Amino acid sequence: MLKITAEELQIISQYIHEISGIYLDQSKSYLFETRLSSIAEELGCTSYRELYNKAKIDPAKKIERQIIDAISTNETLFFRDSGPFELLRHKILPEIIDLRTPHSPRLKTNIKIWSAASSTGQELYSVAMTIRELIGTQLDNFTFKLLGTDISDGAITQASYGKYNKFEIERGLARQTLQKHFTLFGDSWKVKDELRSMVNFRKLNLMLPFAGLGKFDIILCRNVAIYFTLDDRKKLFNKIADNLTDDGYLIIGSTESLTGICPRFVPKRHLRSIFYQKKIEVL
Amino acid sequence: MNGLTILVVDDDPVIRRLLEQRLLKENYKVLLAEDGSKGNETLSSNHIDVVLTDLMMPGEIGGIEVLEFAKGLDRNIEVILITAHSSVDTAVEAMKKGASDYLEKPVNFTELFLRLQKISTMRGLLRNAEDLRQAMDVTENTAAETIQNLEIVAATLQTRLDNVESILTSDTMVSEDKVADALNIILNWE
Predict the structure, then answer these.
(1) How far, in Å, are A151, B33, B85, B145 from residue B17 at the CA level?
(2) With B188 labelled, which of A54, A147, A193, A270 sits at a CA distance of 20 to 30 A?
(3) Cβ contact, residue pair A255, B154, below 8 Å
(4) What is the DSSP letter of B87?
(5) pTM (whole model) above 0.90
(6) Nearest chain B residue to A267, by CA
């Protein structure tokens, strides 16, 4: 495996932060080596400095995308940590449906949900499954817009395709849920069209401005800010507050905290889980 | 002990005996079956890590059927097929159905032991990954509980501090009242 020098560590770590916001501890050189050496070798680079130079001048940004795919962690599974999904099902979804249901029965209820770091899609499809289980046959009365964004092109491609191998499927999905929402596709399982049609995925770098995203009623931003510096985390949650409706709900990872990060949010407890809402501004 | 329990399924008593002796010598635990249906019976009633089965056997249950039965029972059971050179294509088909590998007759024992060693190493790694995942889950759950409690405590304290601040900076109260009210909030903290 190609070894990384101290000087290269600094350059590459800064470069990765620039392109993705991900902050990698420079003391963990093995992390850089295990994740980047194959890209470097494939491109015929004899050093990481050479890889960096090639990536910088690559007009199609293909190398940059490869580096992001290699660096970003895609550890995810269906219904990862049951807490947020119980919370959605028993508290947040019923409340937001009440709030958004129009007086006229002829109008549809519009609800927008955003999974800010959707990885390979499991989280957003789990939200979609939770909605379908909750609403059942009433779905025609609603317009749910579920958006998943991620920095990794590879992850977005897989999420959009909605195909998962046995190993990915077996972790977290009950047999009954699997058969209800997926069809066997060769050796893998593919999300059924009715679930697929509820969601959309697109690439987004959380460090850049969220132009044209609009406001969401529910935002999930779980286990991604942990890879950012404190300063970047503050910026991120401040932007998230801008993109959340005033009565909207934010769910973060179960071991994450917003204390000292974003005073615009207040934590609220429901059973064993926590969600956040925007602090009501007193004029 | 090498850790793995191996089931040998072969209708040829000489090969069965030979495999048993060599595997025992390498410290594997060995069970024997003389045909496919006996093989399936043994699979049902014993914990087996690896099945070493002849591809072509007389009777209705051949190597492929043993493979399917084993995988249906437990996906983690590894199946190695033993095949004559002429049936290599069938063996390749079997790989698609989940066989770990195939060996051509006559069995090269160095090759066999190498594959078993690989299976053993892979099982160790998987076990290790599973242990780590469980340890991570426990740590994550414990940490989540602590962090979420602190999150609520911090938010409650912040609200009270804000109240104290708004009392102390109020323009409509006299100083004595401000201090008394502020003190009241502070002293009544749980």
Answers:
(1) 58, 11, 22, 58
(2) A270
(3) no
(4) G
(5) no
(6) B152
